[in-house]
Amino acid sequence: MVRRSVLPGGVRVLTEQVPGLRSASVGAWVGVGSRDEETGHHGSTHFLEHLLFKGTATRSAQDIAEAFDAVGGEANAATGKEHTCYYARVLDADLPMAVDVICDMVTSARLDVDELELERGVILEELAMNDDDPSDVVHEQFATAVLGQHPLARPIGGTPATIKGVPRQAVLEHYRMHYRPDTLVVTAAGGVDHDVLVDQVQRALQTGGWALDPGARPSDRRARPGGVPAGLPTDGVQVSVRRPTEQANVIVGGTGLTATDDRRFVLSVLNAALGGGMSSRLFQEVRERRGLAYSTYSFASGHADTGLFGLYAGCTPAKVDEVTALLVLEWEKLAQEPMGGAELARAIGQLCGSLVLGMEDTGSRMTRLGKAELVSGELLSVDESLERIRAVTAAQVQDLAAELAARPRSVVLVGPFGD
Description:
By secondary structure, the chain is an alpha+beta fold. Helix content is 45%, strand content 18%. It is built from 15 helices and 11 strands. The chain starts with a strand and ends with a strand.
């Protein structure tokens, strides 16, 4: 059973009760991501993800950690390009504690100067770790190449320069600007009672000092402007980043679909057939038949006004031209000829099975609620989602593959090459 309530202040609470489960996942979502950072605030969204765990007016960082460790629970956070989520998974009996702690973090973060400076070093180490991973580097560089000057091109975690340079006042301004009752969405799934959770959330927010105005309404969902977003390159870009690695990492691709495009289910089938599993075209051609790569796949991500679609492979540097040509060839073959019935059925079956199996995890159900509220404004049932996947035709996949292939195409390489 899925229920939704709007609390005073515009706070939204959504729950999905799953009978028989002794655990629950809860998340506090704020509809702000790295794309929303103003000049001078770059890096603040990711900074806040760290700082909210560093203490509140009534809890130290150790208190927060011990609260979850004492019950065998898990707590973490994730920053995205368009939203941030603080979440926990606990036994159903410990859900009141999890709600209280997470709401305390969201409403009453201290953002202490000393803790901020300590965490600045931690975040710089995190960025350095990511920069040491060529697969992370190639994906970041691909987003930059395809999205150009668009705000979505900025790295979610910030850059060493922005993290070193952002002052506490900017982080505090970003926090006060975006962490408000009308932007907050609380979702929970598993062994949860909706009415009880609503009361817990309201009490916790009031204890945290938030004024919950009975007349306030939730903030509007992110606008979805039509046409080509400003800042995107009009031509494909070729980028080579030097790293002294044994393997080359390559991505070929361009813009994809928005998160609410009606064809997103077609894109899911396309992605599954092209590079979504061991039977996919990329895996079979690049790895199984030719032995040119260990890892190869396709991927897609959608945002409010644009998206990304790309094909990845890691291979010996001497083989990078051959592998890149194969990635393009398999993409264009899918655009030129319709899929066979068996291949289509296999891709659809893979997606349907993955969807249903994922619903056995309370974290996936909690995330599904949050994204439905913040992104689309509708929550499809599992049966409705399966129906839309099964309705995809080979002709639709071919048409979409052709459309994506006709867009500006970028190639990004990371390896022992010249910049």
